[in-house]
Amino acid sequence: MALTIETPGDVEELTEFLTFFDEVNAPRAARWPAFVPFQLPVLTGDSPFAEGRRIRPLLARQNGRIVARVMALLDERYQTHWQEPIGHLNLFEALPDAQAASQALLRVAGEWLASEGARAARLGFGMLESPFATDAYEVLPPSWLRQNPAYYHTLIEGAGFMPERRFVDYKIEVRPELRERWTAALAAGRRQGFEIVPLRDVPEARRAREFATVWNEAFARHWGQVPFSEAEVGTLMEALGPAGMLDVSVLAYEGGEPMGVLWVVPTMAAMALVAPGREVAPAESLNNLGIGVRAPARGRGLNLAMAAHAYLELVRQGATHLSYTLVLDDNWPSRRTAEKLGAAVCAHYVAYARPLL
């Protein structure tokens, strides 16, 4: 059988690259669709997320049919921030019988990264990339977490990758005692002198800049993270604002200075594709959440207060289940925050890596 590795170039080919995601996940009873309007400009170089990054999308075809894909990414911004010669492999997808094709595809992608100066390849984390689920395969996760089949781990490890870091996902079932806990946490944060402001109420001229500034400082040494540009944050707000991001996300201030940020997107379950007879359960209608606090404000309950503010608003909108979303499995401060908010682990994820030389 003829196996070829190709680099899609024009918009039609790049769209085919992106919508292969839908083919892989079509057997699922509940799934997220490919997010072509957001991802295509990244591949064409027209998105702020393409700035400072060299991108090589690759397809594996078997007898003319796409059977696997990956995007090789040389992220100069990552390398500058971390001083590490690591390349990234994002958007990996493959059909179940594509083991040989996946190995060939990932080998070619690694060779390209090596030719660009990378000494190792990370698969499953970087530039909005989500790691790979290792359980809860049939549950619809929050919209920015990866849905992948169980067989992906065989394909990835067969190509020489080994687990690099592990993550946990947290979920909360709303209960009256938790609403009381969140109300108390929000009040405590305000007594500490913090003003918690929904993003919609932050002047537009300051909104993306202050979000990026606080987020980047809070996550400066968080494993695998790269600082956002103001333009990237603006793009995210433009894309996710209609889903309610500006209504539920917040910036927190002390004495007029931004000290904390909470990035929340309410459930996007209405976008999920479901098979006849399958409904998205309330426990699957989940928000996304990311939280960051600058060092001078840590240890004073601001993390709890911001999350509580968002959770109370989401409950007001009708949510019965909430997500604290993804956390590195050894990020104990964040895990303790999740537990204080009433969350419990609901799924596990992993990112992979392998040396290139």
Q: Can you tag this structure with a few keywords?
A:
357 residues, alpha+beta, Aminopeptidase, 2 domains, 9-stranded mixed beta sheet, 11 helices, 15 strands
Low-pLDDT runs of 5+ residues are none
Number of domains: 2
CATH superfamily of the largest domain: Gcn5-related N-acetyltransferase (GNAT)
Describe the biggest sheet?
Answer: 9 strands, mixed
User: Helices and strands: which structural class?
Assistant: alpha+beta
Polypeptide structure, described:
The longest helix has 17 residues, at 99-115. Helix 1 (11-25) packs across helix 2 (36-44) and helix 4 (99-115) packs across helix 5 (152-158). The protein has 357 residues and is an alpha+beta fold. The chain has two domains: 3-168, Aminopeptidase (3-Layer(aba) Sandwich); 170-348, 3-Layer(aba) Sandwich (Aminopeptidase). The two termini are 30 Å apart. The strands form three sheets. Strands 1, 3, 4, 5, 6, 7, 8, 14 and 15 form a nine-stranded mixed sheet that branches. Helices cover 35% and strands 28% of the residues.
